[in-house]
């Protein structure tokens, strides 16, 4: 009887022993999984970094505001990244910095372009007005100015000042209206699908083709 009891106990211990290491291993593995705040993916603790300095916290906030990243801003609103023990992948942080740099570069280029256009547009328009007025004063034949051709000249002149025609906005109607307002005696006429301008004292049907 005694031997049978010891044997039963030994069998029970033997059957329970293999499960213990697996349970510990599973629990230890689950504790080592962390989530990256930038990509939201779960990853082993060994592949992720802790936010250890306030400089990283500052840069995370700067990037979140620059890129208007609502999700990251919401996370950072809970306190500084160090205190929250936020985790990140090294590549995700580098990608965030790169996106911020690219965005700021785009804004800077756009600002320069807008500033250049603001300075150049009045100059180029005044040159166009001068060209039309001087052409009238020296011409012996009636003058007709085809709007499409003048717009083409306007854009080409902008390009000489390094204002890209793709970035610039040149509205034909706006140019026509400004020419009518700036030059005394000029009026607009239409012939077919072409818009032309001529001076009031000389009106004729001849139209210079646009090209």
UniProtKB/TrEMBL annotation:
Region Disordered, residue ranges: 1-22
Domain of life: Eukaryota
PANTHER family: CXC DOMAIN-CONTAINING PROTEIN-RELATED, TESMIN_TSO1-LIKE CXC DOMAIN-CONTAINING PROTEIN
Name by which UniProt lists this protein: Uncharacterized protein
Organism: Dreissena polymorpha (Zebra mussel)
